Amino acid sequence: MPGSRSTRTEILGALSAGLLVIAVCLILLWHNPQVFWNDDYELSVLPVFADMARSWSEGHWPILSPYSWVCGNLAGEFQYGTFSVFVNAAVVLIWKFPLTFPQQAAAVSIAHLFVLAIGAFLLARDRAFSIALSIFVALTASLSGWVICWGATDWFGALGAFTWLPWAWWGAERALDSRRTRWRWIWPAPFVYLLVTGGFPYTVLMLLLLITWLSVKKMWERP
User: Fold this and answer.
1) What's residue 142's pLDDT?
2) 81-97, pLDDT tens digit by residue?
3) Sign (positive/negative) of CA torsion 175, 113, 132, 9?
4) Spatial contact of 62 and 51, defined as CB atoms under 8 Å apart
5) Which of 65, 115, 121, 173 could bond 60 through an S-S bridge, CB–CB 3.0 to 4.6 Å?
6) What is the DSSP string of 2-25?
7) What does the CA dihedral 144, 149, 151, 156 come to, rounded to 10 degrees?
8) Residue 134: phi, psi to the nearest 5?
9) Nearest-angstrom CA–CA distance, 51 and 42
10) How big, in percent rounded to 5, are the helix, strand and coil portions of the chain?
11) What single-letter DSSP state applies at residue 97?
């Protein structure tokens, strides 16, 4: 069955890219256990995540908890990913384990880097890149200086939103592919939602520029 073998290859390639990123992150943690816990992450982001986890454990939506207002209006400070299902799910799950603050920060960041790597891999594969080259693209997207040295270790909102940019790009190109079904427009919807609620306005601007470019490119290609 060539089709199933191809699908299996794609899945294995995507998982390999994500696991390689996790391996690199674990090496960084081994070298410095607090590498993912710096500045804004330790002073602002992680305390809010802790309160989000506490709120959900008590059956409250975080922005409706009286304690959430201690660190500012979570509804206004959207860079915490308060409206992101993925961020909330990751926080709730990670806070179930007896981890220290630096370990919790590392777990949240690594989870997003893993997803980012898979999205970048799939985007590269859609351009007919080889498996090896697509893994290289995934590593570059996930471990570049801006992502790993700032988004993943300092200002989480940048990583929380950028994680979904390759996915939104991947879905948008499927939505513009006329060879697919009429429901193809649904492809980018969940990823656009996750990107917008991820918590970084500049990534939203990146998405708008990307959509504009893809639209112009599609119009230019029409007969």
Assistant:
1) 96
2) 888 999 999 999 999 99
3) negative
4) yes
5) 65
6) HHHHHHHHHHHHHHHHHHHHHHHH
7) 150
8) -65, -40
9) 13
10) 75, 0, 25
11) S
* DSSP one-letter string for 145-186: HHIIIIITTT-HHHHHHHTTHHHHHHHHHHHT-TTS-GGGGG
1, pLDDT greater than 60: no
3-state secondary structure of 96: coil
Q: Which residues contact 222 (CB under 8 A, 6 or more apart)?
A: none
Question: Which range is least confidently modeled, 75-79, 144-148, 154-158?
Answer: 75-79
Determine the Cα–Cα distance for residues 43 and 144; give it in Å rounded to an integer. Answer: 24
C-alpha 158/C-alpha 151 separation (Å) is 5
The amino acid present at 127, given as its one-letter code, is: R
At 15, the pLDDT band (50, 70, 90 cuts) reads: very high
Report the SS3 class of residue 98. Answer: coil
Q: How far is CA 185 from CA 43, 174, 190, in A?
A: 40, 8, 11
Other beta carbons within 10 angstroms of residue 109's beta carbon come to: 25
Closest CA to 77 of 200, 160, 213: 200
The whole-model pTM stands at: 0.90
Rounded distance between C-alpha atoms, residue 114 and residue 99, angstroms: 19
